[in-house]
Input
Amino acid sequence: MHILITGAAGMIGRKLAERLVRDGGLNGKPIGRLTLTDIAPPQAPTGFRGQVEARTDDLPAPGVAQSLARGRPDAIFHLAAVVSGEAETDFDKGYRVNLDGTRALLEAVRRTGDGYRPKFVFTSSIAVYGAPFPHAIPDDFHLTPLTSYGTQKAVCELLLADYHRRGFLDGIGIRLPAICVRPGKPNKAASGFFSNIIREPLAGQQAVLPVREDVLHTHASPRTAINFLIHGAGLSREQLGARINLAMPGVCCTVSEQIAALRRIAGERVAGRIRREPDALVDRIVSGWPTRFDARRALALGFRPETSFEDIIRIHIEDELGGRFVQ
Amino acid sequence: MHILITGAAGMIGRKLAERLVRDGGLNGKPIGRLTLTDIAPPQAPTGFRGQVEARTDDLPAPGVAQSLARGRPDAIFHLAAVVSGEAETDFDKGYRVNLDGTRALLEAVRRTGDGYRPKFVFTSSIAVYGAPFPHAIPDDFHLTPLTSYGTQKAVCELLLADYHRRGFLDGIGIRLPAICVRPGKPNKAASGFFSNIIREPLAGQQAVLPVREDVLHTHASPRTAINFLIHGAGLSREQLGARINLAMPGVCCTVSEQIAALRRIAGERVAGRIRREPDALVDRIVSGWPTRFDARRALALGFRPETSFEDIIRIHIEDELGGRFVQ
Output
């Protein structure tokens, strides 16, 4: 089996490649070949005994998508995207990468023809939703994105569903919830604090909380996000039906509950490293985000979220900190 | 005021141009200039005293959208589209005209810059919805089109909303219900029979009904469809809010109620010209269509449908038959 990952140099892309190598297979078939591509050089995962190609590509550039499809990957994990903030500040770049890049890949798959029909896993986002929201967002809630990024993701979901319906590929769109705890340095994303207030205190650092503690949000760990992508790749056309773009379940809790979970796991001293610094701008941005999902379809299809925010913290300590944190 | 109509040679395009000329203005401002464009030569409406340009254009071809935007129309009615059946049989053409053509026009508007921000009225369709449906489709129901045409319309709605949000234009998307009674010859569209069973008997001709009489559908006359477009052009940003794509209200009735209305208006003999010839394929296609809308937002914004199917028949007799029909 040949697997292609776009956006392979990103956090999810790297973890997905490592996981696939660790599993050795996908959907019960051994993985013999791995193609990793990104605008930044992707790292080949260690321990893989098959053929691996790590490519540096500008996906929407002429000929790139075709050259990726020419390898006829059996499964494509399409993660490559300009992130939310950049898609908002650079209108042209956002549309070029997030819309034109995805469309180029879909078209390259379609034009390969000759019976080629790969599994195509697209990472969408809860940014496809726009406020105002009901108490919990049902599976049949409309997509009214309030960012260019969300628009591009929603457009690609529609294209994917049409290419799937026409039989050019077997598609699934996974609307990932907020990934928490994101490893690495604190970043400037407005959503960064959800991870910062857990990761930094566990590393002995101070973290800033810019919003009120009653802010509610839905989270999944990086490990679970990868599980979602792999589980999605294993679902058949028959299982999915016509509605192939799915909101994922997650752990829905308030910031206050996040902090309480941190306190239970790591103690008062760690939880004490969070400094409250209300920021009206962040507060306003966050208030436009979806909070709670009634992700019945995904649950019925076997997608499994963590069961508590404590699980999410434990996974971070296991996967990123080697089981230890700074008391 | 300068008005641009794309798809100006089509039924709605022609009627819209005639109506604007008859009104002499839009949103309280006199119309001094009219640009009509279509892939087939549009006819200049009679009686217009301003400047009129009737162009034959292939909208997605390089430079065409820019040349249309260069005239800085104050209002754009974008009706040009490959119809549902053709977009399904010719995948490339559907995406080229319905998606790339619309995007080219949006981009041409954006790139004009220099404070240019026209009113942009986009004709969408109830094809953006896909079965299964609730009893009545609410305004916040998701878009899961089951045709390439519906996909293209839904994608353009999303793009329009983003261009609107970014301030490049003042957009509104109008999801027109089934237009009934369509003038002209019976066509092969699966939805054609809704019009055929009224138009043909009134013209003394036999009509074929291919579905069961309990089939439910929502209708608007051509006159009302034009009203919707003109009313939409008059709504402000503040009135519309962030959700600029709107399902329209209409007359919801069964085929049996359509026929009863025809009988009341034109008599038993006219209604007797309908021949039942069940067609399993048409029945299957129609069963996937949306039936009933709970179009609260449009009603609250002042869009007015006909109040009965009899009104729809009377409008056809007035507007198309000069007030007379074949007894």
Summary: Residues 192-218+250-293+300-321 of chain A form a domain with the UDP-galactose 4-epimerase; domain 1 fold (CATH 3.90.25.10). Chain A has two domains: 2-177+220-247, 192-218+250-293+300-321. Chain A touches chain B through 23 residues (CB under 8 Å).
